[in-house]
Amino acid sequence: MASVDVPVALLGYGTVGAAVNRLLTDSADDIERATGHRLRIVKALVQDPGKEREYPPAGGVLTTDFREIAEDASIAVVAEVMGGIEPAGGYVLELLRGGKHVVSANKQLIARRGAELFEAASSSGVQLRFEASVCAAIPVIKVLRESLVVTNVHRVLGIVNGTTNFVLTEMEGGKTYGEALAEAQARGYAEADPTDDVSGADAAAKMAILATVAFNSRVDLADVEYSGITGIDPLDVAAARQLDMVIRLVGAARLVDGHVDVRVHPALVDKQHPLAKVDGAFNAVMLQGDAIREITLEGPGAGGIETASAVIADITTVIGTMHTGFLQNDAAWRTLPKLPAGDNRSPFYFRLSVEDRPGALAQVAEALAQREISIARLLQHQNGDGAALHVVTHQARAGALDEALAALGGLSDVHRRSNPLPVVSDRGVSELGWA
Ligand SMILES: NC(=O)c1ccc[n+]([C@@H]2O[C@H](COP(=O)([O-])OP(=O)(O)OC[C@H]3O[C@@H](n4cnc5c(N)ncnc54)[C@H](OP(=O)(O)O)[C@@H]3O)[C@@H](O)[C@H]2O)c1
Fold first, then answer.
1. Is 206 annotated as catalytic?
2. Where in the chain is the domain with CATH 3.30.360.10?
């Protein structure tokens, strides 16, 4: 079969863009054997073409003029590996409207403006693919959209941010939050400004995308409730260890009675659970559905070459399916309501600092019992001027627990309280040895 030459353009030639060019050049023969197409990077949009680059492209490839890509009719596929919402969003929209296929590694853009971009792709009859935007090298979007197309996936649990997973794993080894974050920065796992990672915002964008694809209903970033790991105290890490658990930043997307619930919070994860075994900067996504029971995908969730492998896989899919329309529709074809705030149910862990005197514990139990929350496990130890109570509840409504904690906060015997963390375990209290 005669080979077809396919000119490809990149928006961005940074860590991921340069890796795409390197991997595409190195694997051009493999791609040609698989698809009959020979891919070539012909243009790459950057800010500063004079910058020194580790893997410089061929002469004339770098440009600062977006029009050279938008108006070149020979370019059918563009990879957006630039980042940010604007100008990247405007560029992608224009390319799609102009009839070019786009693949993107940009989670913030897909999570915030997915609906608008897919509408443009759909009306122009082109593809928008975004595998690299979630967990880099882990092919979870393709698995959800293609391999599990007839599986009713109703729960997605994930560790989708490598930086926070590294920090939490280091804290288990005895480091404070500050020491663990400094180590992550020294090793290049965390940016100089790690806010997006440690606040949970990065994981929230990824969970919005995963939930949209898993449940076929658009979940915007604004619909995801999230909190980060900055408040995790070594006391919580120690209590988790005593409970045979570890603390992880867990993204959870669930279908509950036709409602969608997507959240990202630090959680206590049972050491027997697959997510507890995900250490360091790795990512993992666990898919649960009617026909499959459970599938866990684990691997590197960041890195130039890892992300480039997903970008190239998307480009290859585009050229392999161009003009066929195969699975190019927006994954979100229905609109499910969001689960009302406070209605999500889980076992929870929280910590209280109380006056060390008779009756203090009874007040805590009473505030919980009044809201039908029962205690599954209680740890207590002396803590300076009072007692630290570590409480694990049975399944409870989050809203009811928030009310109970607000009431406890008003008691003179209660000095401090932590935010509740969900507990992730498939074992019952007796199997956990808590009965
Ligand atoms: N790095 C990873 O491990 C990873 C993993 C998964 C997903 N991603 C996603 O991949 C995307 C790219 O990440 P990256 O790490 O490769 O970023 P990066 O190293 O900062 O590269 C960004 C590139 O875009 C260019 N650029 C930025 N703003 C521009 C503008 N206004 N006009 C023209 N060019 C512009 C830059 O030009 P100059 O070179 O001239 O500065 C640079 O080449 C982001 O969406 C990121 O979230 C990255």
1. yes
2. 140-300
Out of 43, 100, 142, 206, the active site residue is 206
Q: Whose CA is nearest to atom 47 of ligand 1?
A: 106
CB of 307 closer than 6 angstroms to any ligand 1 atom: yes
Residues of the chain with CATH 3.30.70.260: 345-424
What's the fold here for domain 345-424? Alpha-Beta Plaits (3.30.70)
Task: Find tokens 């595998």 and name the residue.
Answer: 131
Predicted confidence at residue 431, as pLDDT, reads 87
H-type alpha helices, 147-217: 162-172, 177-186, 195-198, 201-215
pLDDT tens digit sequence for 392-410: 999 999 999 999 999 999 9
Distance 310 CA to ligand 1 centre (A): 15
Compute the distance between CA of residue 246 and CA of residue 240 in angstroms, rounded to an integer: 6
CATH no. of 140-300: 3.30.360.10
Query: Strand, coil or helix: what is 100?
Result: coil
Identity of residue 104? S
pLDDT score of 368: 96
What spacing in Å lies between the alpha carbon of 13 and ligand 1's midpoint? 7
Cα–Cα distance, 354 to 411 (Å, whole number): 10
Ligand 1 mean position to 80 CA, how many Å? 9
pTM: 0.94
CB distance 304 to ligand 1 below 6 Å: yes
Buried b / exposed e over 40-62, threshold 16 CB at 10 Å, is: ebbbbbbeeeeeebeeebeeebb
For residue 1, what pLDDT band results from cuts at 50, 70 and 90? low
CB of 161 shorter than 6 A to ligand 1: no
Superfamily for the 4-136+305-321 domain: NAD(P)-binding Rossmann-like Domain (3.40.50.720)
Whole-angstrom distance, CA of residue 425 vs CA of residue 429: 10
Q: Is there an atom of ligand 1 within 6 Å of 48 CB?
A: yes
The Cα 77–Cα 11 span in angstroms is 11
